[in-house]
Specification:
Layout lengths: L2 E3 L5 H12 L3 E3 L6 H4 L2 E2 L1 E3 L6 H13 L2 H7 L1 E4 L3 E5 L4 E5 L4 E2 L6 E2 L2 E6 L6 E3 L2 E5 L2 E5 L6 E5 L4 E3 L2 E4 L1 E10 L4 H20 L4 H17 L3
Antiparallel strand pairs: 1-14, 2-4, 3-7, 4-6, 5-17, 6-17, 7-15, 8-9, 10-14, 10-17, 11-16, 12-13, 12-15
Helix pairs in contact: 5-6
The chain binds nickel (II) ion.
Length: 224
């Protein structure tokens, strides 16, 4: 599933995030890369010891993780603290697949879903599209500041070279309660039908039944 969630961060939060990022140092992104990614990764990441990191994470992840569409589409079990990534002129990230297991020893999680939150407007840079190979062809993604995109961590993807300006994103990964992407997709479709029924005919028997099936399929398929 490839899903865009608009306006995860509103303009006030974006402003706070960007003014915090302005105070941070960025380091070579290859330091955090696995062996195969290191060959194709050309970007910079916010230093891990940044003094306002907690505040940044609260702003970005608080908004993302609490978003009802993120909850429904990702069904997150574990969510990683994000990386804040900067691409300046000449930087990009060649074709790769994200590491399958991430996190420190003892705090490891499986990456099922990758998420990018766009932190600056698309007119501030040329290039820098996130390009994902899907069964339906390549998708090229460049979103408004504050929007997020979710895609399967198993997909081959790259970031086109930034030819002008600066691209700023927060990237994070989640382990889903539903390991099977098809189950996630089916449940998300059912969630959307349930929400539509709740709005159009909340008192109907159909609404109650669909809600019950949604809840019980989640119970049947969840792995914790
Ligand atoms: Ni990636």
């Amino acid at each position: 599933m490839l899903l865009v969630i608009p306006a995860v961060l509103d303009s006030a939060k974006l402003q706070q995030v960007r003014s915090l990022l302005d105070q941070g140092n960025f380091v070579d992104g290859r330091l955090s890369a696995g062996e195969s990614a290191r060959r194709v990764k050309r970007n910079e990441e916010l230093e891990s010891g940044f003094r306002h990191l907690q505040q940044l994470n609260n702003l970005v992840m608080g908004s993302l993780v609490q978003h009802p569409l993120y909850q429904a589409a990702a069904m997150p079990y574990r969510v990683a603290t994000p990386y804040y990534v900067r691409y300046t002129q000449g930087m990009g990230y060649g074709d790769h697949v994200d590491d399958p297991v991430m996190g420190p020893p003892g705090g490891q999680y499986r990456s099922d879903i990758s998420t990018s939150v766009f932190l600056n407007p698309p007119d501030q840079y040329e290039g820098g599209e996130l390009v994902i190979r899907t069964p339906f062809g390549q998708q090229s993604i460049k979103l408004a500041a504050g929007d997020a995109v979710l895609y399967p961590s198993s997909s081959l993807h790259h970031i086109n070279e930034v030819t002008q300006g600066v691209r700023l994103v927060a990237v994070t990964w989640a382990q889903s309660m539903l390991r099977d992407p098809q189950q996630r997709e089916l449940l998300f479709q059912l969630y959307q039908a349930r929400e539509a029924l709740r709005t159009s005919q909340p008192e109907s028997d159909a609404s109650t039944r669909v809600d019950q099936v949604y809840v019980n399929l989640t119970r049947m398929w969840s792995e914790l």
